[in-house]
Amino acid sequence: MSQALYAQWPSNSRRTWAWGAIGLVLATYGLSAAPVILWGLVSVALDVASGLDVAVAQSRLTARLSDWLFATIFVQFALWALMIWGWARLFERRHAASWGLRLTGLTPLRYAVGLVLGVLLALAIGFVGLLLGVGAGVEDMASQVAAARLVEPEIAMLLAVIVLVFLVQGGAEEVIFRGWLMSTLAARWGVRAGVIVSSLVFMLLHAHVFVSGLAFGAVALAGLGAMGMVFALLCLVTRSIIEAIAAHGAFNAAAFTAPLAVMLASDPDLAPNDAIAQVFASATGTAGGTFSTGLFAQGLTAGVIAAVLAVVLTRRARSPRWKPVVQAD
User: pTM of this prediction?
Assistant: First the structure.
């Protein structure tokens, strides 16, 4: 007998081999990125064929990617989640409740609670960053904010689209990592291994931060790993991924749109694409340098929250009212 994380699996369901589940997450991530990569290669090839220098063609591709950044993020993460969903439904024959996606009349309320939790997490990390001296530049910028620019139709629509894209992107990651992967690994290796390994895979898929240096990458990955653990423990405490889906999306949206809004409002002449490029570089850890302290604030805050959630989970697990879901082998 083993423990199912969220709900009993159907009697005719199949289990994916644990290492195979990890490989499937990595493979489908690559497949989800394939359309964007193919589009980029074709774009450069066509420009070169028309007589442009390779460097110029690459520069034009960078500009196109900047223009279509959020469309490509939306498509990639939605496609990635759909591939995992399709595997779970068609091969494993599992229903959504078995990976924590049980829809009830309380789902909108649980999603709203998750949104609040995500925003509070972003505010907590920002507060710790201010205490560590990260926000001095932001405070200077905020003192010059001309909020009127943010209600201009073009800017307001841009911010709304960004929020929507990050709600989808964060939600897709929760379906994949804390929903399907964590429950699949738990059924094979146990709950503890499912939580730890799924968080490690989540962390390692952000290894691009090492482009900014070894020390920076280590700090950034530690923070990301702690964030993954926070969402994993939240799922265990709530026995659902609904709150985590909303919290992850809201956190990403708040962490991106807040500095973007401050930059746009404080400099009326700053082009939206230029501001987006700067914020995206810092948010993805590819800017390095001065942002390492900010990521340290993220790791520190997330680590404390993960510890608190672990205590809550431990106390709840000892309660006679909290019964594990037993899954027949």
Answer: 0.88
